[in-house]
Design brief:
Immunoglobulin-like; disordered N terminus; about 700 residues; single chain; mainly beta; rod-shaped
């Protein structure tokens, strides 16, 4: 049976390839060549007979249940029991008018129903043919033709599965079978089809791809990882994409030099600093002849390493060495910062930093710069901190001190003595013990004497030694047996000057109850200018006077008796006071040719230096007595005695006018001389008599 069939109802409704009922009468119907059609009488009065005719020629007749088919239709026609006529294998020649005449049972009038059948050739599957299937954008015109066969075809165009939306650059032929597109652009790219149909068939062509070459455009250059600063050693991928038909060819450039690399992706493995620079992607469309470029700059950086602090000297010695710390680091360093010990933060006057902060220098380092140092390093993308670097400044030994276990200095015979020596020293000091200046061959910090004998008492010395600073410092402690030991009296001033202050200290050890001061073997009590303090261990003499000079001693009173210090002679420097010049006579006028002795008398300690001047001119004489020989006009005048104390730095002067006697004065001078001689003679007689008296008495 043919693939397509048609059914005609009373109204001769057409049934096409896929039968579909059509209600109501129809004047004409269409059917496809080769199809099957069924023509039915429809709902009419019951007929006793009837005839089917085609253009006045009978096809088939029936009377009652007897049916007869025309020989010309024997192979193609069949009368069915419901008065229907079935025709198959239709041809174009079957086109024409068909009529069925019915003779009703209850009427002598016949009923005729007519219909016009048109048999059409179905449309063939169309083919789309393009004048050119590939074209550069904006470069010309494309004509698409829909080629097909069949009766009365109607053509429609489809693009990318949708009915074609026409625009002003499109021109369609009158039969719709030719589509012309001018000034082709990328929007015209796509799959084109044409669909043809007539009343009996519908066909669609295969797709024709119209390719419109365009681009490259809208280039996007990306870098993975997406950052300009790339860490040494990682892999980097550049991806280049463009809008381009056909796909563009890609070339790569590094700092304007072409790389031997093609394709949209550029892979860099294990990048180093030499990979820093400008990367350019160039995309070229060989069909359009266009190209575009895009660039990215990549900077390859090295992470900063964990810094290590180095030093120029492992064990700097206080006040002797210059300490230099260096922050050793690799990588791209942006900033360096030093973390200092707490004590150094507030005392960094001696510290200097280099321009790049990599080096820290301490001039003439002292102990306060000891501690843990760190350096912090900031890179472009990371930062690191060094491990603590311990700086130990060697110093000392300082503050050497001897202590006894029981804080005593007086012990009984047969008792035990435990001494400990401490010193502020880095590194720890080495110790040596001495007793009364003799080495005990003992090297530890502690010294223990068991069952002390008389030979174990005396002055213990601890000698501390620092093997780095090469310094020795000693401390002494006097250990006595149940008594008092007064070492000495010390003075605050070695050369006290009159009217200044001086302090005497009684250096006493042992168990004492009181201290008494003596001067020239006489007890000294506190007064306005003699002040006692610190339990009488200290005697301060305010505005010291020359009369305060003398021999001082301090006496300590203990449970077992008293002990006095050695005498301490206090000398007070004073003067010179105003000097006096003695000429041996009241009148400083002398005979011509006589010898004159001038004596400069002055109170001063130590003795003042003496200089003599005649009429303001220094004489070559520096003793207290000045003898003027053969007095005459050339050596008379104003004689000046100048005294100078090198301790007090004081200078005093005294002058006398020496002149020659006039002639009128000679007689008076002779009388006076006789009287003076008589007085001297009387005094001599008295002295001789007194000596004889005392001799006889003894």
């Amino acid at each position: 049976m043919p693939t397509h069939g048609f059914l005609l109802l009373l109204c001769l409704a057409a049934v096409r390839t896929e039968p579909a009922d059509v209600e109501g009468k129809r004047e004409s119907i269409e059917a496809a060549v080769g199809a099957l059609i069924m023509l039915e009488a429809g709902v009419l009065p019951e007929a006793r007979s009837g005839t089917w005719r085609f253009q006045c020629s009978d096809i088939g007749v029936w009377i009652g249940n007897i049916m007869d088919i025309n020989n010309d239709y024997t192979d193609r026609a069949e009368l069915l029991g419901n008065r229907s006529l079935m025709l198959q294998s239709l041809t174009v020649n079957d086109t024409g008018e068909y009529a069925v005449t019915l003779n009703p049972l209850l009427s002598n009038s016949s009923i005729t129903v007519r219909v016009y059948l048109t048999v059409l050739v179905p449309v063939s599957k169309p083919t789309v043919i393009a004048s050119v299937s590939e074209i550069a954008e904006g470069n010309g015109t494309v004509t698409l033709s829909c080629e097909l066969s069949g009766d009365s075809p109607t053509v429609q165009w489809i693009k990318d599965g949708e009915w074609l939306q026409y625009h002003e650059r499109m021109n369609i032929s009158s039969d719709n079978q030719t589509l012309t597109i001018s000034a082709v652009n990328r929007s015209d790219r796509g799959d084109y089809q044409c669909m043809a149909h007539n009343p009996v068939s519908t066909e669609r062509s295969d797709k024709l791809l119209l390719t419109v070459f365009n681009g490259p455009e809208e280039m996007v250059l990306t870098m993975d990882p997406m950052q300009e600063d790339i860490i040494v050693g990682i892999n980097v991928t550049f991806n280049c994409s463009v809008q381009s038909v056909p796909p563009s060819e890609f070339e790569w450039f590094f700092n304007a030099d072409m790389l031997d690399w093609r394709g949209p992706k550029l892979d860099l493995v294990d990048v180093g600093r030499n990979n820093s620079g400008n990367y350019t992607c160039q995309a070229r469309n060989n069909m359009t002849g266009n190209f575009v470029t895009s660039s990215k700059t990549m900077k390859v950086i090295e992470l900063v390493s964990k810094p290590i602090i180095t030093t120029n000297v492992l064990h700097p010695v206080e006040h002797n060495d210059t300490l230099t710390l260096t922050c050793a680091v690799t990588g791209d360093v942006v900033r360096v910062n030093w973390i200092l010990p707490v004590a150094v933060v507030s005392n960094n006057e001696l510290m200097q930093e280099s321009a790049d902060n990599m080096t820290l220098t301490v001039l003439s380092v002292d102990r306060s710069y000891s501690g843990d140092y760190r350096c912090q390093v900031w890179g472009i993308v990371n930062n690191e901190t060094s491990d603590p670097f311990a700086v130990e400044v060697s110093y000392g030994p300082d503050a050497v001190k001897i202590t006894t276990e029981d804080n005593k200095e007086i012990y009984a015979l047969q008792s035990n003595l435990s001494l400990s020596c401490t010193a502020d020293s880095v590194p720890p000091a080495e110790f040596q013990w001495l007793l009364n200046g003799k080495s005990l061959e003992h090297k530890s910090q502690s010294l223990v004497i068991v069952n002390m004998t008389e030979n174990d008492f005396g002055n213990y010395t601890c000698r501390a030694y620092n093997n780095r600073t090469k310094q020795y410092v000693a401390s002494a402690k006097l250990i006595t047996t149940n008594g008092i030991s007064v070492l000495k009296i010390s003075s605050s001033s070695r050369e006290p000057i009159e009217h200044g202050n001086v302090t005497l200290t009684c250096d006493v050890s042992g168990q004492f109850l009181s201290i008494q001061w003596n001067k020239d073997n006489q007890a000294l009590e506190a007064s306005r200018n003699a002040v006692l303090s610190e339990g009488n261990k200290t005697l301060t003499i305010r505005e010291v006077d020359r009369i305060d000079a003398g021999n001082y001693s301090c006496v300590a009173e203990g449970l077992l008796g008293r002990k006095a210090s050695q005498l301490f002679q206090l000398a007070v420097f004073y003067g010179p006071d105003d000097p006096q010049i003695s000429t041996g006579q009241r009148d400083p006028a002398f005979l011509t040719g006589s010898n004159v002795t001038l004596t400069c008398e002055v109170l001063s300690f130590p003795a003042s230096e003496v200089r003599w001047y005649l009429n303001g001119k220094l004489l070559p004489h520096h003793k207290e007595e000045l003898i003027i020989f053969n007095l005459g006009q050339n050596n008379t005048g104003n004689y000046t005695c100048e005294t100078f104390n090198s301790k007090t730095q004081l200078i005093k002067q005294k002058s006398v006018q020496i002149s020659l006697l006039e002639t009128s004065d000679l007689e008076d001078y002779g009388n006076k001389s006789w009287i003076a001689a008589a007085v001297v003679g009387v005094l001599v007689i008295i002295a001789i008599s007194a000596c004889a008296f005392f001799r006889n008495r003894n």
